[in-house]
Amino acid sequence: MTTAVGLPSAVLSAHTLLVPALHRWTARLGGHLSTTCGYQLGLCTADGAPTGTVGGKLIRPVFTLLCAAATGADPAGVVPAAVAVELLHNASLVHDDIMDGDRERRHRPTLWARFGVPAAILAGDALIALAFEALATSAPVADVAHLATTLRLLARGQEDDLRFERLARVGVAESTDMIVGKTGVLLGAACRLGVTRPDWQPRFEAFGTHLGVAFQLADDLLGIWGDPAVTGKPAGADLRAHKQSAPVVAALAADVPAARELARLYATPLSEADVARASALVEEAGGRAATEAEAARRLDLAWSHLEDLDLDPTAHTHLRTLATSVVDRDH
Amino acid sequence: MTTAVGLPSAVLSAHTLLVPALHRWTARLGGHLSTTCGYQLGLCTADGAPTGTVGGKLIRPVFTLLCAAATGADPAGVVPAAVAVELLHNASLVHDDIMDGDRERRHRPTLWARFGVPAAILAGDALIALAFEALATSAPVADVAHLATTLRLLARGQEDDLRFERLARVGVAESTDMIVGKTGVLLGAACRLGVTRPDWQPRFEAFGTHLGVAFQLADDLLGIWGDPAVTGKPAGADLRAHKQSAPVVAALAADVPAARELARLYATPLSEADVARASALVEEAGGRAATEAEAARRLDLAWSHLEDLDLDPTAHTHLRTLATSVVDRDH
User: Can you tell me which family this protein belongs to (chains A, B) (predicted)?
Assistant: First the structure.
């Protein structure tokens, strides 16, 4: 079942466990909420017809299952925890899309764009409820407390993100804190909740948190230099939206002429030519290199936390392949 | 310390336990979220200055403490559970206010009206996170699972409420289900979570659920016949908003001429004279009497679930006074 790369079969068998569980949990909602939440997860169309698949790549819950396997546990035992993480992730996507005014996700209208803001607020709340229900009916209460802390930190990270949009300049440290809050803590929780040994939980959490940061930095790099044909977004999308993404923050923090020109450019609406120029300036001021270096550093740091643990070799290989693929990717 | 009525001192001593705990938990959020969540709870002004008090009457968490006392337990032990219930209640108020477009609550602008929709969505999420954190760090995991189910049912109740607004006619049974979901389950949880004996928990939950329904029916009666000077709302406020509140639903279900005239009237925008006429028609069609009778029945039903339990007499008296006061009130 394991291919040369090891990844597809591991992810595929994880999906075999996860997708039916996601179906079961959203069905529990009943009424229109099963449809709106199912639509968000890609389990059904806007009319409620089953798609026979799922929307995202389920990266976070796959990590939960792989971490369980790495510690020698049966991944089937942590399916509720994996489901909880995926539901919480989707809840934050649903609410963030409203706040950010984003109208499209995964090539479909976002939940609020399709069903309206009230339905989307409610669907997010319902997904949070299901996440806690899934976890609390299967895991120790300390794990549930950890998921609650995770949700609190996600809210804090999103608040920082919204605040940064109104600032001309964001500090590198502040920006990193925000990335930890928005992406790190959730992947940290995904990895931690796959592990039952209390002494190993903090190490898997640290592993996942650093990996999540690396993942977000890779995303930020794609937001500027990603191939439009692969990412599905226009080149320089994040620049056009004046986002304070990691490469921009790093570039603006540099004391070089390119940084000053970038700051002047970023203070005004950008034409297509300006976007190309801004992209070149971010690179010239060192923003791209600094972000690539930090992503690589975070990936190393992630692994340092698992270094001396006696892990299942097959699961360890899958984990390593998956971790590398989420950081070193083109979409 | 106990007055003749017994209520004020019991509620007052409950507040002494609850208010500092609410302060502590919202402070944990940090940043702007401490302010927005503190504002919602009435702990601080919009600028973050402490008000030295709290916004609502804390009815739900007071029930949690009184139920603990009734079973002979120390109320101090269930403060985190009481806080969790109050935080979850406020989370649902914050999100419902956005969905309903309500701009004022407790004589102040609602959170979204004051800070914008994104800040209000986030504050609601943060309050949910805190609620689960408070409970999961102090109670058995089964209690946390119950809180999660409560949040799921709250979302379902609010969905029904939003859907009913678009319908010309709502069935009495459907309307009751919605009231159970929106108000019953949360007071049910408030009472259940105050009790540690597993065999008594379902009985206190049933007590609180029926009481919550009675509470909502009383609210619906005030929404039509409440004294504007006392409620702070114009007379017939719910009729003017074409709400499908319990008296209206009961009146429209009757097979009498007044019901048919009411249905015709409710299909159009209402002038001041129409509001007065609608109010008279709801009463003539039996909507007021039916709702009053149902509220009384629910109050009796609530007590029937605690009937044969050996409860602390003082706490029992406080509980009875408080239960009666929330149903038989003028504001």
Answer: Belongs to the FPP/GGPP synthase family.
